Amino acid sequence: MQRVKAALEDFGRMLIFAAEAVAWAFRPPFRPELVVAQMAFIGVGSAFIVGATGLSAGMVFALQMNYALKQFAAEGYVGGSVAFSLARELAPVFTALMVTGRAGSAIATELGTMRVTEQIDAMESMAVNPIQYLVVPRIIASVVMFPVLTMIFNVIGYGGGFVMGVYVAGIPIGPFVEHTREFMEPSDILHGLLKAVIFGLIVAVITTWRGYAATGGARGVGEGTTRGVVMSSIAVLLADYVITFIAVGI
Amino acid sequence: MIEVVDLWKSFGENHVLKGIDLSIPRGTTFVVLGGSGSGKTVLMKHVIGLFKPDRGAVRVNGVEISRLEGKELTEARQAFGMVFQGAALFDSMTVLDNVAFPLTEKRRGARLPPDEIRARVVEKLKVVDLGEEVLGRWPSELSGGMRKRVALARALVSDPQVVLYDEPTTGLDPITTDYVDGMILSAKRKLGITSMVISHDIASAFKVADRLAVLYDGHLVAEGTPEEVRQSENPFVRRFLSLWFAKQ
Question: Which of A158, A197, B38, B95 minimizes the number of CB atoms within 10 Å of its CB?
Answer without folding.
Answer: A197
